[in-house]
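sry for the spam today, last one i promise. struct tokens for design, 501 residues
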């Protein structure tokens, strides 16, 4: 996965018309170039902003939208109407546009030039009603887009554009992406199931199942020298349990974990996969569950979820892309158990073996312990406590007639207790608005027990992504009132029964 998003582009397209004459159009172009350059140079903007010539006719608009569709590095279009741009001209282009759309409702000048303003100025600077004309047409066509209003030099405006660009980058990463399932989902589990055909139609990624034997064959091709190199990397990177070190009683288990990682990584790289899932019920031919391997692959940008949960695996990868370059991480997570102490209620999140150490604060331990399920040898895993601070949990569930994005804003907290008999990676958080309301709202919304836990994304990122994807968004935060929340779920149900496209 790329370490920065500057390889991607968002096209800055300004609308006008021939009515105003060449001098006005020259100024429109100059102003547009200045805004595009300022956004591109801003440290708040994660992708390259590319100025495109002013569009003034049906033909020009249609051509630029078609060009955007086929431009490999273009992840979205930012539209702005400097002057009045009659919106019937935009119908053809908007009908064919397949890239995400942001409508920047701004104007070149921040302040009204009271003493010098004349009709020439008024003819040039017409965003206040030019953008309304454009906005009507986009709404009339029922096209999802983000509207950002305010002056283009405003830090809050740029941050909102930044948020949308990250969502668009996540969407772009989904298009044509391949995900592998090793075995099926955990038997009789409901929420990890879903319609993979509908998912490919809706989101653009494909999910296919591969036999464990196919993976084991690749694992068994690993050489001793490859294992030696990786085992040394483990020793240099983590606080190793003495029994795992060379000469230790369980060093062979560490070598087996390395062998699994090398084989799994080779399988994913050779197949050009962006993520994967497995299940402890279907690992025939493997000596131990792939804990350490999964944790390290997630840290390198792969999406993952356990028990065959392909939807969460895709979401983890997508949120990793969206958070590129931001402090903090995005990782596969599960609400494991609760602390209901009055005045100090919180969730303990974990997942047996597979939590990304990119979440960690302080040293990360590499240890081996019994697991109790799966019927395999004791697995090697990384153990740590997660960094505290603002965070969220996100889940995508298949509601039968639609996909629902569910997000709970949470507050990560530090652990004041040890877990001497539970050697797992762990994350503690307090759901907003409070424990009881947050948990009840999640249950009412049908949220999954698997999530992506994010330390660097906000609800706005995921709202923008849901809008781009055309899926339902349901949020739980400090403003949530349970009765109102339940009513919103009912209203949404009616909307999606009526609006089935």
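last one done:
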């Amino acid at each position: 996965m790329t370490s920065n998003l500057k390889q991607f582009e968002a096209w800055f397209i300004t609308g006008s018309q021939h009515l105003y004459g060449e001098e006005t159009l020259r100024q429109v172009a100059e102003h547009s170039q200045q805004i595009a350059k300022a956004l591109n140079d801003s440290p708040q903007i994660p992708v390259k902003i590319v100025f495109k010539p002013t569009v003034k006719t049906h033909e020009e608009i249609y051509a630029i939208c078609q060009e955007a569709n086929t431009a490999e590095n273009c992840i979205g279009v930012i539209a702005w109407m400097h002057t009045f741009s009659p919106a019937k001209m935009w119908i053809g282009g908007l009908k064919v546009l397949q890239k995400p759309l942001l409508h920047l409702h701004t104007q070149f000048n921040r302040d009204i030039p009271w003493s010098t303003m004349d009709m020439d100025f008024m003819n040039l600077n017409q965003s206040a009603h030019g953008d309304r004309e454009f906005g009507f047409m986009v709404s009339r066509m029922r096209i999802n887009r983000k509207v950002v209003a305010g002056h283009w030099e405003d830090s809050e405006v740029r941050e909102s554009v930044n948020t949308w660009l990250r969502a668009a980058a996540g969407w772009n990463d989904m298009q044509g992406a391949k995900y592998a399932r090793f075995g099926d989902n955990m038997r009789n589990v409901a929420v990890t199931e879903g319609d993979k055909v509908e998912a490919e139609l809706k989101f653009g990624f494909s999910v296919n199942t591969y036999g464990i034997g196919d993976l084991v064959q690749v694992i068994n091709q690993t050489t001793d020298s490859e294992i030696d190199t990786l085992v040394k990397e483990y020793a240099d990177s983590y606080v190793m349990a003495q029994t795992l070190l060379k000469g230790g009683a369980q060093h062979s288990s560490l070598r087996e974990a390395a062998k699994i990682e090398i084989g799994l990584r080779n399988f994913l790289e050779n197949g050009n996969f962006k993520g994967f899932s497995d299940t402890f019920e279907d690992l025939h031919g493997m000596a131990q569950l792939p804990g350490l391997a999964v944790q390290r692959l997630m840290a390198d940008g792969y999406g993952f979820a356990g028990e065959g949960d392909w939807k969460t695996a895709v979401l983890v990868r997508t949120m990793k892309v969206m958070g590129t370059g931001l402090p903090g991480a995005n990782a596969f997570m599960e609400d494991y158990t609760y602390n209901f102490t009055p005045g100090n209620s919180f969730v303990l999140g974990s997942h047996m073996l597979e939590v990304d150490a990119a979440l960690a604060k302080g040293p990360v331990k590499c240890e081996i312990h019994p697991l109790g399920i799966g019927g395999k040898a004791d697995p090697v895993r990384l153990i740590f406590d997660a960094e505290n601070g603002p965070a969220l949990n996100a889940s995508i569930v298949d509601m039968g007639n639609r996909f629902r994005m569910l997000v709970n804003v949470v507050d990560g907290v530090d652990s004041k207790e040890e877990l001497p008999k539970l050697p797992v990676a762990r994350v503690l958080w307090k759901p907003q608005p409070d424990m009881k309301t947050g948990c009840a709202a999640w249950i009412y919304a049908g949220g999954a027990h698997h999530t992506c836990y994010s330390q660097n994304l906000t609800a706005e990122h995921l709202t923008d992504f849901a809008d781009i994807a055309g899926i339902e968004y349901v949020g739980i935060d400090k403003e949530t009132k349970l009765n109102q929340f339940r009513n919103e779920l009912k209203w949404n149900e009616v909307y999606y029964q009526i609006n089935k496209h």
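The mean pLDDT is 95. ok im logging off now
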